[in-house]
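ok, trying the design again with the full structure, not the truncated one.
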């Protein structure tokens, strides 16, 4: 089955299941999902981290997963989707990102926006743009937020390219390395993906805990 074949896609695709997405759309699905997750506010729920790691696992020759993937195609699709998505999100933000965010009722989206704004204020543009790639939801909202806050276009383009490349290539190659070193690792795909999801959420949990502790300390000092 060609990884770019849409005709072979099943009728029902679970957008939250990396294996289902890869089985349906292959490498093209990776590009589309990462574009939506990093470029469109409605994509904040998509499984970017687990999708990249799972794709790396399924690139290993002889893997028994839902689809055979080419490592080169996966890497190209992942980098293209992540970089084009972030750049699109930035320009959406320049043209009214805060208004779009204000119309959303998704609590997680607004929490992510608060974390993104905090990252920009604490670490500066370059570090915040790179770090945001590794935090779910934050990587969705930081791009339009950077546009809305008038982060210089050249600065954003440079550092989102650095962060997006490190994030996508790193996770895909991590999955590929694990699949290459552990025989029949695809049999344990679900628990491995669950671990990846938990690890990917740790930075967000740490930031939330730090914010709560700071608010508590400020309340005690007032």
């Amino acid at each position: 089955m060609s990884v770019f074949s849409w005709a072979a896609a099943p009728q029902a695709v679970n957008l939250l299941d990396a294996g289902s997405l890869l089985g349906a759309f292959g490498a093209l699905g990776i590009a589309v999902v990462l574009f939506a997750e990093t470029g469109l506010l409605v994509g904040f729920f998509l499984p970017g981290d687990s999708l990249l790691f799972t794709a790396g696992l399924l690139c290993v020759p002889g893997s028994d997963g839902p689809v055979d993937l080419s490592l080169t195609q996966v890497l190209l699709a992942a980098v293209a989707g992540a970089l084009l998505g972030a750049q699109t999100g930035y320009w959406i933000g320049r043209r009214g990102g805060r208004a779009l965010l204000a119309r959303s009722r998704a609590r997680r989206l607004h929490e992510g926006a608060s974390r993104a704004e905090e990252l920009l204020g604490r670490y500066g543009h370059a570090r915040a743009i790179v770090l945001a790639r590794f935090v779910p939801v934050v990587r969705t909202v930081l791009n339009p937020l950077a546009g809305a806050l008038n982060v210089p276009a050249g600065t954003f383009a440079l550092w989102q390219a650095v962060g997006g490349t490190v994030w996508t290539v790193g996770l895909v190659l991590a999955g590929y390395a694990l699949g290459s070193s552990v025989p029949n690792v695809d049999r344990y795909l679900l628990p491995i993906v669950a671990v990846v999801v938990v690890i990917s959420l740790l930075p967000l949990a740490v930031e939330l805990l730090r914010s709560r502790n700071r608010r508590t300390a400020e309340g005690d000092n007032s």
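Keeping the full-length input from now on. Confidence is low (pLDDT under 50) at residues 1-11.
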